[in-house]
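Dear support,

I submitted the protein below through the web form. The confirmation email said the job was done, but the results page showed an empty box. After a refresh the structure appeared. I'm attaching both so you can tell me whether what I see now is the final result or a partial one.
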Amino acid sequence: MELLNLTKKQTLWVFLAVYFFAALVGGLIMLYGLNQNYNMILVTLISTVSMTLVVFVFSNIVKNASLYDPYWSVIPIIIVLEWIFIYKNFSLNVILLLVAILVWGIRLTYNWWKNWNGFKHQDWRYTKLHDQAPKIYFLTNLMGIHMIPTLVVYLQLINAHDVIQNNTFNLIFLIGLLISLSAAVIQFIADKQMYDFRMNPNKDKKVIDSGLWKYSRHPNYLGELMFWSGIYLMYFSDKKVIDFHLIYPISMIMLFLFISIPLMEKKLANREGYAEYRKTVSMLLPYRKKGD
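What the results page shows now:
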């Protein structure tokens, strides 16, 4: 059976097979690095790059770069679990960190699956990149779609790695935890509101401007940035020193401010009502419409 003809449920087996194989490759690299007593941060980098390459190869086989989409939320959970068992640290702060990662990852993966329609569809951004420069799409696909997001998420996980190596639980950690958990709730609400808006056949508007979307044009992206900022605060709770680790959440912010959000804004620019919506609603940080 051709992949394009697979049902949504049947494609799940393709994803499970590819990601199982990727996780197996990554896990073997982690085990080898552990046995050789190599630096675990470096070993994890090699592991996550290798897993990304596995997914990249299969995304080319199925001719759909969206095979990579679950990587963002699935692999971080696997990496964090590996670190917890490697360091054998099951203290309160580590368990709470894991809870935050699980809540974020499971919610994001669920939202991806709810909106996934099968291999006949591909994320519009990937298709646009292909159409704009088909001759270099192989490189764009490898670096822009697969590798850069992997590396940005990997940088965020370094802060989680350092949390797993200590037992610090204080007010700063608790604030970071609450920010991360609140971020996942914001994302869940924003995604549900957007899904309900899209599924409403009687809607008289082309642009959602209710709920969280009344105060921010991208509340789901805001939640993503809040989540990783919360993870940084958990790291900061132990060090209490502003160091180069601050660059990690900043890199995530830059990814969204200069790539993800501009691409989405450009796509929506010609949609009926969006120009007015853009004038009256904040791009990211929420505040009420002018005149409300």
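Response: this is the final, complete result; the empty box was a page-load delay. Residues 213 and 219 are 6 Å apart (CA to CA).
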